[in-house]
Amino acid sequence: MDSRIPFNRPSVRHPSHNHPLRVFKACRENEIICSGCELELAGQAFKCTKSDCDYFLHKSCFDLPREINHKSHSDHPLTLFHSSPYGQPYTCDACGEYGSGFTYNCSKCQYDVHVGCAFIPETVKREDHEHQLTLIYSTPCKGREDGATFICDVCKEIMSDHLWVYYCKECDFGTHVHSCPVYEDHEPKKRGEGETSSEALRMQSLMVARDELAAMRIRNKIKNSIIQFGDEPKYKWVYN
C-alpha cells in the first residue's frame, strides 16, 4: 500500500469566479484564452481547480485594481467589472472593439475600456514613422465644425471621433491603437500568406500593455486598490 500523503496544490479565490484557482504555467502553444482580458494566455497564470471548468486568468488580470482614475475619463473613476455590465457584449470606447470579459466601466456615462486598453503605453515607436507617437483619447478631428473626419494612416479606414489614437502632431500621422500593428512590417500581404487577423494584432499589442502594467506596479509599490494614471497634459491639442 502506498503510504505517501497526497500533495495538495494551494488554491486561491478570485471574485470573478465561483471555484478556487491554482497557479498555472501557460505556454502560447496551448492557445488558451484568458477569461479576463480575452487574450492569449502565456506565462504565470491561474486556472480553475475543477477539471471540467475552462477558466483561466493572467496573473496581471488576477491582480487588477478594483478602481482606477484614468485621464481618458477624468470626471469619474472607472470600476472593474468581471463581465459586461449590460448583459451582452460591450464596445470598448478606446479601440472600438467588442468585449465580454473584464472591463473598466463608468456606470454614470456607460463608458467602457478593455482592461488591456486601460494600460497601453502613452508613447510608441513605429518602424514606418520617424517620430514617436503619443496616445491621445480622441481623434484630432473631434469637435471640428468643418465636418472633417480622421483616417488611420495605416489601414486608411475612417475612425470614429471618440476612439483613442497613437498620433504624431508634427506630421499629422495617426493610427488605431490595436487593429493596426505597431511592431511589424506593414506591407500588404496576399490572403493566405501570413495574414494576421485584427484580433491577433490586438493580442500582440496588449501583451506589451501587460508588461507595462507589471513594471508600473513594481515601481509604484501599489498597496491599495486605487491608482492614478498620468499627470495632466503639459500641452493642448489645437486644430484650426
From TrEMBL:
Keyword entries, A-Z: Repeat
Keyword Chloroplast among UniProt keywords: no
Lineage: superkingdom: Eukaryota
Gene3D superfamilies xref list: 3.30.60.20
Domain DC1: 15-61, 71-118, 129-177
PANTHER family: CYSTEINE_HISTIDINE-RICH C1 DOMAIN FAMILY PROTEIN (PTHR46288:SF27), PHORBOL-ESTER/DAG-TYPE DOMAIN-CONTAINING PROTEIN (PTHR46288)
Protein name (Swiss-Prot/TrEMBL): Protein VACUOLELESS GAMETOPHYTES
Organism (species): Cardamine amara subsp. amara
